[in-house]
Amino acid sequence: MPDATGDSVSVRCCIAGGGPAGIMLGLLLARAGVSVLVLEKHADFLRDFRGDTIHPSTLDVMHELGLLDDVLRLPHQEVRELRAQLGEVALPIADFTHLPTRCRFLALMPQWDFLNLLVERATTRYPAFHRRMRAEVTELLQEGRRVVGVLATTPNGPLKVHANLVVAADGRHSIVREKAGLRVKALGAPMDVLWFRLSRTPGDPTATMGRFDVGQIFITINRGEYWQCGYVIPKGTVDEIRQRGLLAFRKAVARLVPYVSDRTHELRDWDDVKLLTVCVDRLSQWYRPGLLCIGDAAHAMSPIGGVGINLAIQDAVAAANILAAPLRDGRPTLDQLRRVQKRRELPTRITQWLQVTIQRRLITPVLAGARPLKPPLAVRLLARFALLRRIPARLVGIGIRPEHVRAPLAPAETARHHAG
Ligand SMILES: Cc1cc2nc3c(=O)[nH]c(=O)nc-3n(C[C@H](O)[C@H](O)[C@H](O)COP(=O)(O)OP(=O)(O)OC[C@H]3O[C@@H](n4cnc5c(N)ncnc54)[C@H](O)[C@@H]3O)c2cc1C
What is the residue range of 384's domain? Predict the structure, then answer.
């Protein structure tokens, strides 16, 4: 650990939160020779499903880092097409096979496998990379208006981290942004999602699918040996559903997806069903002197399109591209922090606008029980013209303004790179 004395440590950049945004930024900065410490409050990355999608634009970033083969060696599934079932009609809506990316599919893999790989590579390759698990950021250290570090609780007692830049990558309930007094604008969401697993058997269909029926939306993601199921419910109704009992819930699932009706007993109690409280929000300003927010801490996304992880990673790449050199030399200016927001705000706004429009036009009426359930014109056109299916594939798979790794390599890395 650089410049550590007892319960105090000094680094160029301290990142609160070891999710996709924090770990990716940590790796990229350390690769550029910037001493970085990632503080993660949990002991490991082993949390059940919180999004397992690795998008084609993220896979391009992995390629640029020389990690694509390692990532694809991890057990994963590859999704090349998305389908929607409206009432009795199943329709293709997105085709990833024509994307101008190295991998023309969404890779599905447990998020902890992905994060463990990044941490392992960062730790073994880049001496400037440090992380502390079970280190929960609780306070900001400030000098006047400037953030100069954080205070964290660890099993060994409090830890003070002094840093030229603190990055909040601590997710949608970010304590860091709250302590910094940054204003959050909520855009609203009409739904929550109950996530659970049911096993897959050889006779099951293969497609990853969203089903829309009167008052019901159900997502089935093919994970090889099991289905990752998402039951979309009107916001705030989870208690009502729980009160009706697990048996009623199992029956509802069986009605919607008849081929899993022989397996709904695998839901033994409500612990097997995880609630995602959907929120869509973003900060008006992502930075303050000495502080920058990225990923969910800057903007929580709707689960539509499953783009939260990709956006978090794209934020990290943009932040490293803009800030690695200033951090290597000292302290980024306010203007450089503003440039990160300027670069990433447009993709965030457009994506959230699309998500909120889909929520309003499709999700809200379906959950309210609108009938008859006729595919909207846009969906009918997608089903009819294969060429059009490349548009949602591009929006989901690549997103708006994909980022590429441009942050400089540390001098030792440059030598290794040329030698190799
Ligand atoms: C149930 C569920 C399903 C989802 N499904 C998808 C999906 O299919 N596809 C998709 O793209 N996205 C999905 N998402 C959203 C996705 O998880 C996020 O958009 C993405 O992980 C954001 O990355 P992040 O690094 O910004 O934040 P997070 O992944 O939330 O990481 C934040 C990290 O900070 C840590 N932390 C929090 N507070 C502190 C603190 N005070 N000190 C230290 N560490 C702290 C947390 O433990 C966590 O590890 C899902 C989310 C949930 C909850």
Answer: 4-187+279-419
